[in-house]
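Subject: mismatched residue count in predicted assembly?

I count 224 residues in my input, but I want to confirm that the predicted structure covers every chain. Input:
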Amino acid sequence: RKEVEQDPGPFNVPEGATVAFNCTYSNSASQSFFWYRQDCRKEPKLLMSVYSSGNEDGRFTAQLNRASQYISLLIRDSKLSDSATYLCVVNERNFNKFYFGSGTKLNVKP
Amino acid sequence: ETGVTQTPRHLVMGMTNKKSLKCEQHLGHNAMYWYKQSAKKPLELMFVYNFKEQTENNSVPSRFSPECPNSSHLFLHLHTLQPEDSALYLCASSPGGAVEETQYFGPGTRLLVL
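Triage response: the counts match. Full output below for your records.
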């Protein structure tokens, strides 16, 4: 069983659309949660951390549901520049182990 | 951005060659990581160093040999690699010991083994 599972997509959406990604994790002892963004042939870059209370950063909203062991990312008013692969990352803090999902690809079309 | 740098950016090597990948971080972090990213696969954690001590070896074949001389530098020594080792090798660093461990990645070395 994979530690972190994501729908690979691609999600093809028009500009201005709202799109949501989910991610599930298997280890209930996981401590920290993140969304990273990876552009084609580039390194992953932190998009936002995910907190139990949910958090928002501009057009991006992240939610964590510990009981069901899933994390979500909502992108509102999609821009062409949002086209990328979004990686869900889970950390077992005590061991510095980060588990990455295989990513969800988003294509925002004009 | 120059927080985490990696050299070389691209590398082509034969199966009998020996080469080394270098990573340097300028963020004052204490933890450094090597990851492998193959096409269509999630990032695979290879090695973790905390305060220069190796704390994780994720069942990596011995043809990959890490070295961490100090908290700012991390090397990955390669020898007798196989074609299936061709991938993007990413280095990352994080503060080490913090409550929220955010990783920062270098640009990666794209390796092709012939």
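Chain A has a mean pLDDT of 92. Marking this ticket as 'not a bug'.
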